[in-house]
Amino acid sequence: MRIQDTPEEWPVTATATPFTGNKTSVRTDEVEMPDGSRVKRDYQVHPGSVAVLALDRDDRVIVLRQYRHPVRRRLWEIPAGLLDIPGENPLHAAQRELYEEAHVKAEDWRVLIDVYTSPGGCDEAVRIFLAREISVAEGERFEVSEEEADMELARVSLEELVRGALAGELHNNCLALGALALRAALSGEGIDALRPADASWPARPFDV
Q: What's the CA gap between 174 and 157, in Å, rounded?
């Protein structure tokens, strides 16, 4: 039996948006259950995100260290950003984030893994790309501000990231999922079996 997620939508009999923020909002839906009862579900409405696991010629991953206020921690992460332009091509967004946060470009792009970060309370969908054949980008570095102005960049082996995630030392979901997915791909059918960079993404349809 092939295990596969499937689309489904239970009836929503009422909806409200009690909070609207700069990039996300909170929605309250009244949902009809299969037995006919109705319950309220609160969740964060999110535009979606992309992340990039960029691998250099020495099989090191570009990572950055950034302060994250909600968890009161400075986390090691991979370059990532919001899909805050409706219908934006996720590959284009990923290429932009890699340039802005690491000032590099890549010639080879694949889809590594697609996930929902917290489907019980948020509709955020994330596409994590694998980027290879990287080189320094032309032009001036992107000007950063706020938390990003204090970022620290490094290149770390894939094995060290996998070890750190399994040891409970690295907690960023995109970094951990990306590293573990790449390790699984390398141990399985290989990188050439990964989906192409323009593979369809039903969770966040995009313009070609």
A: 16
Nearest-angstrom CA–CA distance, 125 and 83: 10
Q: Model pTM greater than 0.85? A: yes
Sign of the alpha-carbon dihedral angle for 166, 172, 177, 180: negative
Phi and psi angles of residue 74, each rounded to the nearest 5 degrees, phi first: -100, 115
pLDDT one digit per residue (tens) for the chain, 208 residues = 899 999 999 999 999 999 999 999 999 999 999 999 999 999 999 999 999 999 999 999 999 999 999 999 999 999 999 998 888 899 999 999 999 999 999 999 999 999 999 999 999 999 999 999 999 988 777 665 556 668 899 999 999 999 999 999 999 999 999 999 999 999 999 999 999 999 999 999 887 6
d(CA 20, CA 193) in angstroms, rounded, equals 41
Q: Say how far apart CA 122 and CA 116 lie, in whole Å.
A: 8
Catalytic center residues:
148
Dihedral angle over CA of 148, 117, 179, 101, nearest 10: -20
How far apart (Å, rounded) are the C-alpha atoms in residues 40 and 34? 14
